[in-house]
Design goal:
Largest sheet: none
Structural class: mainly alpha
Shape: elongated
Helix content: over 70%
Strand content: under 5%
Distance between the termini: 31 Å
Number of helices: 14
Length: 250
């Protein structure tokens, strides 16, 4: 937590106290750095971009990954588990290896510089992770309730939607939280695929690095808006992280 505490303290320090020697632990707090951030950056637009990209990729990843994970978990082929691990392998591919062809693809279809470009590539990676995680979660569930629903006249989709899906809500929420965090913290993809109107907070932080120095106060203040929302989400949803990981992954 020391780097985090240093970052928080720097945001409220006057410039003369930031690098005082010896370090100054007692100082008069100032909001100058935050006022500077609102003067230089459109903070609400940056927050809007981060939220739209994170939630958009999470929703698409769940819509594709949850049914795919269920289909693999209930498949009778002995190769289903290898297919699930193939999805996991996709998540391990270095993003830089796919960035250039994806950049050219987004340019050709007219999505370069928009939120959709980042949402789509994040969905590609996050959907693979959701599929693998939900495969493990559905695989741990007994088939008895679904078979009983089929016996009572329920369709395959009805058994999935009415029986299996409600029992894996913690796993779905855990997967969604991971997708949001992956997208929220992403820098490389967002830097290459967005423009000044669609860039998120993770890219805006780079503006604190000048050609001659680093405006640490501005960086610390802007980092508040980048870290606090995701930290609060993780704290309030902590139990779903634990349930999703301990029950779903085998």
């Amino acid at each position: 937590m020391i780097p985090v505490l240093w970052l928080v303290a720097t945001a409220y320090k006057p410039p003369k106290d930031m690098f005082s020697s010896p370090p100054s632990f007692l100082f008069e707090p100032t909001l100058h750095n935050f006022r500077r951030v609102f003067e230089v950056f459109d903070v609400w637009s940056l927050l809007q971009s981060s939220i739209i990209i994170s939630l958009g990729s999470a929703v698409l990843s769940l819509l594709l990954g949850v049914p795919a994970g269920y289909a693999l978990a209930r498949a009778r082929s002995r190769y289903a588990i290898w297919v699930a691990y193939l999805f996991l392998a996709i998540r391990t591919v270095p993003i830089i290896a796919t960035l250039l062809p994806f950049y050219l693809m987004m340019r050709d279809i007219g999505l370069l510089g928009t939120w959709w470009a980042v949402i789509l590539i994040n969905t590609t990676l996050n959907c693979a992770f959701v599929t693998w995680m939900m495969f493990s979660y559905f695989r741990s569930l007994p088939r008895d309730m679904e078979e009983a629903a089929l016996t009572d006249g329920c369709t395959l989709f009805g058994a999935f939607y009415r029986v299996a899906l409600p029992t894996v809500v913690p796993g779905i929420i855990a997967s969604a939280l991971f997708c949001v965090m992956f997208s929220w913290n992403d820098f490389l993809v967002a830097m290459f695929l967005t423009n000044s109107d669609s860039k998120p907070l993770s890219v805006a932080l780079l503006a604190a690095f000048g050609t001659k120095d680093i405006t640490w106060g501005t960086l610390g203040a802007l980092a508040h808006f980048s870290t606090v929302p995701i930290m609060l989400m993780a704290l309030f949803m902590n139990r779903y992280f634990v349930q999703g990981l301990t029950k779903g992954v085998h």
